[in-house]
Amino acid sequence: MKTDPLIYINSQFIPLSEATISVLDQGFLLGDAVFDVVSAWKGNIFKLEDHLSRFEDSIRATRLTPSLDRNGWREAIIETVRRNNLKDASIRFIATRGVSQQVIADPRENKPTEIVWAAPYIFLADDNGRKNGIRLMISHLRGFPADTLDPRYKCVNRLHFQLAKIDALEAGYDDVIWLDQNGYVSEGPASNIFVVKQGKIFTPSEGILRGITRQTFVDLASQEGIEHRECQVSTFDLHTADEIFTTSTAGGALPIREVGGCKLKFEAPGPITKRLDEMYWKLRDSAEFGTPVY
Ligand SMILES: Cc1ncc(COP(=O)(O)O)c(C=O)c1O
């Protein structure tokens, strides 16, 4: 018999099939909510403190006032994984603006809704994609500029991500990336992007969510003596790359074999993608940077 996972909502653990939030929640009505996603591997939550810091920044910049402080979120996250008896998990935690009883209301008066949902670990791509690379579309949609909604907010306003993804899937691609307002490469719906050229790696510096996995790969590259630069990356750089990979909490590095309808020069995954991804998974196995759940 399949068990009903337990989800944390406002201090209570509730079976997922019974878990609800109000239809008047501003997170639902207005997309007024922030979140983060962290993962556990072999019972250790990777870089939990980095994810909590990013979440705290999103909360602060959104001027949300959740009842949980950093310790409270940490405990809720660990306890949610524990109660669901998960070793390898993808854990999403969310703070919404909460419920307004009036149609027009002062958003500062609401009590935020707090949710932690732990599911079995997911990868962004299937086995074949992870082994042989995926095909990326370059969307005609652009990311939000910083003067509208800075991409450093990890927020639920993601309709343009969904539309870009649907366009890509309907055109037969596996995933999508988009450009910023100036035409430079930004990121994808759940990943950052790296270009490898002549043994060096390059990743966009602006117009992106500061991925925890992105930073991990930058650190691993440093450790390996691989030169790396955070800079503007254009579609020219994509088309002339030796290797391209994306990074995400959902799977580490994902090799790219084709971008914007053009096959890369070499087979994916290239040697640097492979080496860094192996290092990443060694790190995950080692429990370094891990917060034990059990
Ligand atoms: C828009 C966006 N960019 C990049 C990433 C990758 O970030 P991380 O490595 O922290 O998972 C995510 C994660 O979901 C994301 O939503």
Description:
- With 294 residues, the chain is an alpha+beta fold.
- It folds into two domains: 6-120, Aminotransferase class 4, branched-chain amino acid transferase, N-terminal domain (D-amino Acid Aminotransferase, Chain A, domain 1); 127-286, D-amino Acid Aminotransferase, Chain A, domain 2 (Alpha-Beta Barrel).
- It has nine helices and 15 strands.
- It has helices at 26-30, 48-62, 70-83, 127-132, 146-149, 159-170, 212-223, 235-239, 271-286; strands at 6-9, 12-15, 33-41, 44-46, 89-96, 113-120, 134-142, 175-179, 192-197, 200-204, 228-231, 243-248, 252-259, 262-263, 290-292.
- Strands 7, 8, 9, 10, 11, 12, 13 and 14 form an eight-stranded mixed beta sheet that branches. It has a seven-stranded antiparallel beta sheet with strand order 2-1-6-5-3-4-15.
- Strand 12 (243-248) and strand 13 (252-259) form a beta hairpin.
- It starts with 5 loop residues before the first strand and ends with a strand.
- 42% of the residues are buried.
- The mean pLDDT is 97.
- The structure holds pyridoxal-5'-phosphate.
- Residues 37, 187, 190-192, 209, 211-214, 247-249 line the site of pyridoxal-5'-phosphate.
